Amino acid sequence: MLQTSIRSIEIFKLFLPLKEPFVISLGPIKEVQNVVIRLRTADGCTGYGECSPYMTINGESVDTCFAVAQYLARGLRGHDALDIAGCVAMMNRIIYANSSIKSAFDMALHDIAAQQAGLPLYAFLGGKSDKVLTTDMTVSLGPPQKMQADAIRFQRQGFPFIKVKLGETLEADVARIWAIREGIGPDHPLSIDANQGWHTAEAAIAVLQALAPYRIAHCEEPIARHLFMDLARVSAASPIPIMADESCGDEHDAARLIQLRACPQFNIKLGKSSGLHRARKIVDLGAAAGLTLQVGGFMESRLGMTAAAHLALTSDAIRHCDFDTPLMYAEDPVVGGIRYLAQGVIEVPQVPGLGAVMDEQYLRNAEKWVMG
C-alpha cells in the first residue's frame, strides 16, 4: 500500500448558531448546518475539508451530504490521496452533481497534498502571497432602517467594501439602497446581490437602472439562473456591471457564459464548483477572457473560508473576496486558519497545507460516520 493512500475517512455533521438570522431573497438561514470531512493517509497525514450545503442553490442539505459522503468514502478509501484528479474523476463516476459534499473531499485532498509538498496550499496551487486580501461584509435583507444601521456598523468597523442583499420589488430595493447611502455616504464601495430575486430580465433591468445613481460596483445574479441566455441582455442594459453567481457553478457553466458574452464578472465558490480542482479551471477561463473574479462561499466556517482564501492568492484576476460568513457565527469551531485583521484584511496561514483544523471538542460531540 502507498504511504499516501487514504486509510481512514471520518464524516461529521456540524451545527452551530448564528449571531442573528442571515436573510437573502431565497430565504433565511438561522443556523449553520455543515459537513466536515477528515481524511488520514497510511503515513499518518491528516487532511480536513468542509462544505456548507445550500438547498436552494446546490440542491443539497446536511443530511444528503452526510449520506452521499458515505458513498464517496467507500470509493476513495485506498486511493492515492495525491492523485487529486483521479479522486475527483472517481467521485464524479460514483454520483452526478452533489458539488457541495464533493468540495469537502476535494479540500481535504488538497490539504494532504500541500502538506506532503511542504507548501502552504496557495503555493501548492501556484499562487503567491504578494497581494493583500480584504473581505467585504454583507448586509442581510430586511427593513431599510435595519439595513442602514448594519451598513453604518460595518463601515465603522473598517470593512472596505459592503455587500447588500436585495432581490424583492423595485420600490423596496431602491428604498434599501437609498437608506444605506444616506447612512454611509456616497463614496464607500458598495455591491449588491439579488440572488436571482428579480426573476426576469425586464424586472432586473428596471431595478438596475433605478439604482444607477447610487454608485454600485457590481451586482451578483440579478435573474433566475435558468435564464442565463438573457444575462447578456441584462448586462448590456445595466449601468452596473453584472457578476454571475448561481449561474456559474463549474467550468462548463463558465465556458458557456464566456461564449455568450453574458457578463464581465464571475463569483467562484468551492461548494458550487465541487472544490479547488475545478474552481481553478474557472479561474483560468475567466482570467483568459479578461473577466474580473470574486471568490466567495456559503456559510462555511473559517476552515472552508481558509481554502477559499488560498485560492484567492492564485490569480491577479481575483479582485474581490466575500469571506465574511464566519464572522456571523456565535462560536468559532476552528483552530488555525485565516485571521481577520483590521480594515477587513485577511491573513492566510503560512504553514504547509490548509493551515486549519477543526477543534476536537466540536467533533467529539458531533454525529459522525467512520470508515477505517
Automatic annotation (TrEMBL):
An individual GO BP term: peptide metabolic process
UniProt-listed InterPro entries: Dipeptide_epimerase (IPR034603), Enolase-like_C_sf (IPR036849), Enolase-like_N (IPR029017), Enolase_C-like (IPR029065), Mandelate_racemase_C (IPR013342), Mandelate_racemase_N_dom (IPR013341)
Protein name: Dipeptide epimerase
Protein family according to the UniProt entry: Belongs to the mandelate racemase/muconate lactonizing enzyme family.
Gene Ontology terms for molecular function: magnesium ion binding; racemase and epimerase activity, acting on amino acids and derivatives
Necessary cofactors: Mg(2+)
Gene3D superfamilies, sorted: Enolase-like C-terminal domain, Enolase-like, N-terminal domain
Entry keyword annotation includes Isomerase: yes
Top-level EC class: isomerase
Domain Mandelate racemase/muconate lactonizing enzyme C-terminal: 144-241
Ligand binding (Mg(2+)): 193, 220, 245
Coiled coil: none
Cofactor binding, per record: Binds 1 Mg(2+) ion per subunit.
Entry annotation: catalytic residues: 165 (proton acceptor), 269 (proton acceptor)
Pfam families xref list: MR_MLE_C (PF13378), MR_MLE_N (PF02746)
